[in-house]
Every structure is written in C-alpha cells, then in structure tokens.
Amino acid sequence: MTSNGVTVLVCDADGAKVSGGDTALDLIGDAMGCRADVVAVPVERLADEFFALSSGVAGDVVQKFVNYRIRLAVVGDIGDRVAASDALRDFVREANRGRQVCFVADRTELEERLARA
Q: Distance from CA of residue 33 to its chain's centroid?
C-alpha cells in the first residue's frame, strides 16, 4: 500500500507472532524487499509479551526497527491493555508523539497519521 507517498507493508493478521528481535527482523527483511518505509502490524500478530513491557519484547522489537530506519505501526484496538497498564499507556503515548513507532486503531487512522507527517 502507498499512502501520501509512503510505502507501507501491511501484514496479514494471520502469520507468525512478533515475539522478539528475530521475528522483527523477518518483517524488516520483508519491508526492505518491497522498499517499504513503514510496516503495519495488526495487534493480533504481536505476542502477548510485547504488551508486558517488563518482558523486554517491545523494546527489542522497536530497537530493531529503529536500527534499520523502518517505521513500525501497530494497528488495532489495545484499549483494554492500555487501561490495565500505566507503563503501557505511557509507552503508547510517547511512541505516538514520535515518528518511529505509532499505535493506531485502524488503517484509516494510519493513513491520516502518514498524511500529517
């Protein structure tokens, strides 16, 4: 998908769970193969540990995307998870202030965000 001149690799909800740096590198490789600037990962593709920040999975995944200068968009409703964790709420808020990682409700919101960037 291309939105506002930005190439986005949109991942299917089905597929291997993103559970750490190795699985993030698989997505990064796919993105590089199609020259994508952003990888949009449905919430369903993220391992539960991603949302438990103390596990270090989110940090590992995000660091891989930062290192390769490919942006990560987490797409889907994480309202229940955010409501249950102050740390996750703060992480999502800070991520959405930057450009490298964002959390959006759906593809429409992602397209709007890319239009503003």
A: 18
- Print pLDDT tens along the chain (117 aa): 888 789 999 999 999 999 999 999 999 999 999 999 999 999 999 999 999 999 999 999 999 999 999 999 999 999 999 999 999 999 999 999 999 999 999 999 999 999 987
**Do 38 and 72 meet the contact criterion of CB atoms below 8 Å apart?**
yes
String of DSSP letters for 50-113: HH-GGGSHHHHHHHHHHHTT-EEEEES--HHHHHT-HHHHHHHHHHHHSSSEEEESSHHHHHHH
For residues 88 and 44, what is the distance between their CA atoms, to the nearest angstrom?
Answer: 17
Cβ proximity of 27 and 18 under 8 Å: yes
41 φ/ψ angles, rounded to the nearest 5 degrees: -110, 120
Find all residues with CB under 8 Å of 113, minimum gap 6, and list them.
73, 102, 104
Q: Are 79 and 103 in contact (CB under 8 A)?
A: no
